Amino acid sequence: MTTVSGLTQHKLDMSALQDWRSRLRGKLVLLGDAEYETQRRVWNGAIDRYPATIARCANAVDVVRALHFARAHNLLVAVRGGGHSVPGHSVCDDGMVIDLSLMKGIVVDPEARTVRVQGGVLLGELNAATQPLGLAVNSGIVSHTGVAGLTLGGGLGWIQRKYGLTIDHLLSVELVTASGERVMASAEENADLFWGVRGGGGNFGIVTEFEFRLSAVGPSVFAGPIYWPGEDAPELLRFYRAWIADCPDELMTIVVQRRAPNLPGVPTDLVGRHIIAVVACYAGPVDEGERVLRPLKSFGRAVLDLCQPQPYLAHQSMFDPGFQHGWWYYFRACHVNGLTDEMIDIMAERGRAIVSPITTVALWQLGGAIARVRDEDTAFSGRGASFAFNINGNAYSADGFDFEREWARGYWSALAPFHAGVYVNFLMEEGEERVRQAYGAAKYDRLKALKRRYDPDNIFRLNQNIRPR
Ligand SMILES: Cc1cc2nc3c(=O)[nH]c(=O)nc-3n(C[C@H](O)[C@H](O)[C@H](O)COP(=O)(O)OP(=O)(O)OC[C@H]3O[C@@H](n4cnc5c(N)ncnc54)[C@H](O)[C@@H]3O)c2cc1C
Fold first, then answer.
1. CA of 323, closest atom in ligand 1
2. pTM
3. What are the pLDDT digits (tens) for 401-413?
4. Residue of 56, 90, 335 to test ligand 1 pocket, by largest number of atoms within 8 Å of CB
5. What DSSP string describes 258-305?
């Protein structure tokens, strides 16, 4: 046994390592390699871990071999798609990162309206491949997020109310189980596993390929943000509540609270001021979207209106500059049912107290097609909720981060009387009870039984973990 790193003190068998390295189609990165520093980093700068090995897999065979090596050497396993796990589940100290970011294959079948996507593809790459055909999979709102982690948790996005969650577009997956077996899962094959991967996160295996159904949207949509002064939050939210009550499923909105960012299109005298915005996307004809959004656009005294016809691809990446790699991020989240006057008061008060220029609150509108799938049909839970809160306390670096984190916790705690579940992909490291709450007791028990079947030794435990025992 030879010490690979004095820092991690992790002991690996170097001859076995060299043998494995020679058979890997991708690349093995070890501490001391030029790439190590960039490859150990994940999106959230607050996460700072030193794995013993990073297996940059080129294909499913590499994934199987990496997993066998990790198991044979008792290495903790972290699985990385896009690296956007906010609690940092896709990197670990000492163990092995099985990194799929080199696996970028995307094959669109325009006739069948399906797309096959490998495990390292990012949302922007997927959308860029399907949008020339005016097609899309529902996917998240920041284009550098990974398809893999987002899909396995459920997948919220701009066309969810019309076409459902990302998992509602999922037709099949190819995955490597904890025993190193390559299996398919779909409604017809290993249906129990297919149920579990649609919301159960990375608990059941490493997905090397996803197959999605595509939906018609774009290439142009009526979409974008409208800003009001932060102090107008109570009136704006009351109007918004009434206005969305009977809106069509094509309309998807996110209410955002923050300080106005320093971005192109934002007037300099507005930058830094507290604002409340409604960001909309209409998944239907552009002129219809303009008509549906007219009442919102003419409400009150908006200070900026960038809601207009634009490419769906541009809209999909509009949040990118606000969520850059390496900044420090902390999330608190909950589902809520309805938007009561008390909640509006909490939002107004807490929004006024935002300090950091990059701290944000997003209130996601749910309903529509999401709620038309029965909750028991997939592991994802909370389809009946009306909104999902994601409260971010963010800072550029460690400086001021503790304050932002406490602010986010305070906002979330103030909403406690209204909590109605939570989206697993918005959880931090919050313990088993919170994971149970995310799924509900009955579904959590079903997931546990599935975990016992597919990963009894809990090899895949760096995730929102469903403990087999
Ligand atoms: C900036 C930002 C924006 C976001 N926006 C949205 C959004 O719009 N909608 C939404 O629903 N969520 C959103 N999220 C949450 C997001 O869905 C999760 O953070 C998700 O885990 C990110 O996936 P990833 O592949 O990038 O992350 P990674 O960190 O690579 O993976 C996260 C976890 O997923 C599992 N995993 C990853 N790849 C695989 C694989 N191939 N096989 C098996 N398990 C795997 C592992 O357990 C891993 O720990 C956002 C997060 C961030 C940071």
1. 1
2. 0.97
3. 999 999 999 999 9
4. 90
5. EEPP--TTS-TTTTTSEEEEEEEEE-S-HHHHHHHHHHHHTSS--SEE
